[in-house]
Amino acid sequence: MKVIDIESGTGNFSTTGFQATNLGNAIQLIEKMKKEKATIFLSFTANMVATGLRGIFAEMCKKRFVDAIITTGGSLDHDLIRTEKNYEIGDFFMDDTALHKKGINRLGNVLIKNECYEFLEQKIQPVFDKLYKKNKLCAPSEIAAEIGNSISDENSFLYWAAKNRIPVFSPGITDSAIGLQTYFYKQKRKDFGIDVTRDMKQLADIVLQADKTGGIILGGGISKHHTIGINLLRDGMDYAVYVTTSSPWDGSLSGARTQEAQSWGKIRETATHITVDCDATIAFPLMMSKFIW
User: Fold this and answer.
1) Distance spanning both ends of the chain, measured CA to CA
2) What positions carry a catalytic annotation?
3) Which CATH number fits domain 13-85+114-292: 3.30.565.10, 3.40.910.10, 3.30.360.10, 2.60.120.200?
4) Over 70: is that where the pLDDT of 57 sits?
5) N or C: more exposed end of the chain, with fewer CB within 10 A?
6) 3-state class (DSSP) for residue 213
């Protein structure tokens, strides 16, 4: 048995113990992905863009740290809204009926006023107009790029993704405020539509042309599954880092550990992989502090 001296403090996460050890190992794995020039996919859920992680995602795109992003439609919502509107911090145990009467929506302990979605409607309709003139059917990645091209906020991940030509895929885009806005837009442009299958070739090409692929996957849901699922085309990812707070015991994808994906061929049998059981708003800034600041 190898004995490791555990340091006082957190100078070296890998030898701290518990989830700090997994966190330290995840940092080393991300470093390995970069050193071995893997094509890196970043996956996250919309709620994270409502937090300070939005700025980290933007910095990663600015520095071209990732090659592709896969996320939910709500991420586009929050990123666009926050170009000009501020969210507020409340707490997890507020009077939600009272908040509703005030026109305030609670996302955990983040508070979002209804006026934010009125702003989104004003901004997204001209984006749809531009896309409609090019092609009546657009792909989710084209919506993301057009939003990025239409804004100037350097704290926006869509801004930097568009500037640096990093594709942003959103296979479930209709489940969002932007998706709802397509309903209103189609009242005047009935032939306008979003073809969610159109991005598949571009995404598949990225996977098939890569020598190695790696995933930094925060949370679960469709973003996570689309990221690992597309890697079936190349017999799985070579590297994977999961950050989750979900449990694996109910068989949910969000709680599934990296090794479960190996049984499906979504992560290779020979892959290097780690799961960090932690809130991403805590773990991810620590993980990325070595690379982007």
Assistant:
1) 37
2) 266
3) 3.40.910.10
4) yes
5) N
6) strand
